[in-house]
Amino acid sequence: DQQVKQNSPSLSVQEGxxxxxxxxxxxxxxxxxxxxKKYPAEGPTFLISISSIKDKNExxxxxxxxxxxxxxxxxxIVPSQPGDSAxxxxxxxxxxxxxxxxxxxxxxxxxx
Amino acid sequence: GAVVSQHPSRVICxxxxxxxxxxxSLDFQATTMFWYRQxxxxxxMLMATSNEGSKATxxxxxxxxxxxxxxxxxxxxxxxxxxAHPEDSSFYICSARSSGGFYEQFFxxxxxxxxx
Lengths: 112, 116
Fold this sequence. Notes:
The structure holds 2 protein chains of 2 kinds.
Chain A: E1 4-5, E2 10-14, E3 19-25, E4 32-38, E5 45-51, E6 56-59, E7 62-67, E8 72-77, E9 86-93, E10 101-102, E11 106-111
Parallel strand pairs in A: 2-11
Antiparallel strand pairs in A: 1-3, 3-8, 4-5, 4-9, 6-7, 7-8, 9-10, 9-11
Chain B: E1 4-7, E2 10-13, E3 19-25, E4 30-38, E5 44-51, E6 57-58, E7 67-73, E8 76-81, E9 90-98, E10 106-107, E11 111-115
Parallel strand pairs in B: 2-11
Antiparallel strand pairs in B: 1-3, 3-8, 4-5, 4-9, 5-6, 7-8, 9-10, 9-11
């Protein structure tokens, strides 16, 4: 059973526009959520996170929104740049020293 | 941010040999390290969780006798693929979580293993 779902395997956006990547989760024990960016043949790079006590966290061009009642989070990138083209993984976890659960990823292509 | 290194970045070996991959946290102490495997165009698959000084916890379906994990210090974990076969060819990635208490897992750059 997939506890973290990224239903869009790919997304194409024009440079300068907003990219919105979505993620749904099923485990109500999750209280910390993260987004990672991954280029081919490299390890994932941490982008931004949000804890369950917040509904928004912003860092430069990246904003993560959390809707706990809907068990949904999204990553907004604005303005999108060609260098943002990568696979984005959503991850979630409960408190404590347990591994994060990852979604299957969404491949973002930003077209110049 | 915290830095995690992996060595080697790429290894090619003959079938039947063993390969050791090292994962190091360079600027923080990692009480817990995780080993993942990624097949082409697929998500990260958690293989095992290793805690410093104790035995690793393996995910269902992962052979612990084939994938030996040692976490001997707070900055080093090793994954040894024993008697490697072509189906073990994959991209192996480690991550580390700080003992400082935050949730982020910091990932290494990955190791591409090719078994001939």
